[in-house]
Structure formats: C-alpha cells, structure tokens
C-alpha cells in the first residue's frame, strides 16, 4: 500500500506539472495570437491612413476652378452632390468596419469636423521682415521680447547675424513651423532662463495657429480661407504706422463682404470692392496695398491628417501636399 501511495503521489505531481506547463503554453500562445492580431491590425490601420492621404490628394487635384471656397469638399469633407461625408469613417471594403477618417478641426458653430486645411490661410513666417515679426509678437502680447525675438528669428533665417551667430543659425528658410520652436529655445537659453524650454513652448503655442512655412515665394495669404482673427493680425503686420489704426476695420469689412458673396469667396481682386467709409481715413490705402501685394485666391499647399482605424487600433499620418501643377509632391510626412 505504501508503494502504491507513493506512485499515486508521484503521478499526481507529474500530472500537476503537466497541467501547469500546458496552461503556461496556452497562455503564451494566447499572448502571441493577440500580438499577431495587433500587428496585423496596426499594419492595416497604417495602409488605411495612407489610402486616406491618397484619396484626399485626388480630391484636391480635382478642384480646378481657380479659387478656393471653405464650402468646397476638400474643406467640409461633404460630397457636393450626395451631401454625404466622403472622409468620415470611410471604408475601402464595405461592411469591414475598417475605416479611415480625414479631419483637422472641429467647427463648434456647425458641430462638424472639417476635412483638409490650406496652409496659405496662415502667415508665412519665412517672408516677414524684422518690423513685421516684431509687430506679430506685440499683437500676441509679447511686447517685452518682441524686438529682440524678431531680430533673432530674422537673422536665423536670413543669415544676417554676427559671424558667431552664423555658426549656430540655419541661414535658410524654415521648412516646418516646428523649427521656430528651436529658435525660441535658443533665444530663451541665451537669456539664461532656467525654464527656457517651457518658455519657448509657451511662446510657440501662442503663435502656432497664425504661422506657416509653406506656400509661395512671398508674404501672401489666401483671402478666401483666412479667418478674421488671422486677417486682423496680418493686416496690422503689413500696414504702416498710419494704416494700422484701421487694420481691424478693414479685416472685418473683407470678411463681411466675403460672407455676402454667393459662394462666400472672391474670384479675383475686382470682387473686393469694399465700402470703408465707416473705417478710419487710411483704410482705402490699406485695402489697395493688400489687393496689390498680399492677397491670393487659391492655395497650393494643404495639410491632410488621416487616421486609419481597425478594431481598437489607430494609426495617424499627417502630410503637407503641394498640388501645384508643375510641383506636385508631399512636402512633409509625419506618422503617429
């Protein structure tokens, strides 16, 4: 009986070990299967996001009317014929549940996500001179550092600083708006601030919604897509000391006239026929300067943010695309 009992105990221990081993193998296999599914879904989400970028590019290239309109499909994401969303949870294989979505901004007034955005609705920091840069920072409440900030940024881009600075400064146009953050970090580090990175980020966040580095070879904005807030600042920047007193009034009149148009946009300079009698006397001169030198009606560079979704896995790609006929290419590509 004693031997039989020992054999039974040994058998039970062996059985227990085999059970634990089998459970361990099963658990490991389950983890490997979940990892494999995750990698599969991640890859699918990535290619769905890429498909979204390509579909957005096709939409941009099909828009050939010679002017931009914030009610066009590239902006709203809504098909002009069916009135249905083209880029919200779009499926390549119907019923698969695997989608991509393109959007950049939530419009609180309309309660919808807007689709793509043109970069020329912002102010191109590469083409501002020192006086204009200074005015930009003053208008954003950075009066104390405005002049020295403007000088540093201008010399960083233009290469007109001291010989020592030229060794540090880039001496060429910024390729992305985020490069401004590097300049700001350098600026506040030179001021010996302990929290120079935090200060640089604070200032960058203050102006990020106003600036771009994409578009054209001059300081122009798309009058059809620019917001009233950015147009206010832009008009103040390009105005002389006398005209600055009427800059906000002129910006308001332009936006009001734009919204009054049938398509809520201007097709040429002749359409910007403003009644500025309610504005200060210099308003007419500022309007003439804006029309002559600083206004365009169609943008070339667009920001596309595409997110692929498969099960609970998401992959986001952000690209800047230039649709100019002789220069079609992706200028910037960032994957999250």
How large is the radius of gyration? 28 Å
Order of helices and strands: HHEEEEEEHHHHHEEHHHEEEE
Question: How confident is the prediction overall: mean pLDDT?
Answer: 89
Largest sheet: 6 strands, antiparallel
End-to-end separation in angstroms reads 69 Å
Please tell me what the overall shape is.
elongated
Structural class, from secondary structure content? alpha+beta
Uncertain segments of ≥5 residues (pLDDT<50)? none
Percentage of residues in DSSP E strands? 5-15%
Helix content: 40-55%
Would you report the number of β strands?
12
Return the domain count. Answer: 2
Helix count?
10
Provide structural commentary.
With 336 residues, this protein is of the alpha+beta class. The protein folds into two domains: 1-121 and 304-336, no CATH class; 123-296, no CATH class. The protein has ten helices and twelve strands. It has helices at residues 2-62, 73-76, 130-139, 143-158, 163-166, 179-190, 196-207, 228-238, 247-260, 283-294; strands at residues 90-91, 99-102, 105-107, 112-114, 117-118, 123-124, 211-212, 221-222, 295-296, 301-310, 313-322, 329-335. Strands 1, 2, 5, 10, 11 and 12 form a six-stranded antiparallel beta sheet that branches. Helix 3 (130-139) crosses helix 8 (228-238) and helix 4 packs across helix 6 (179-190). The longest helix has 61 residues, at 2-62. The chain is elongated and about 115 Å long.
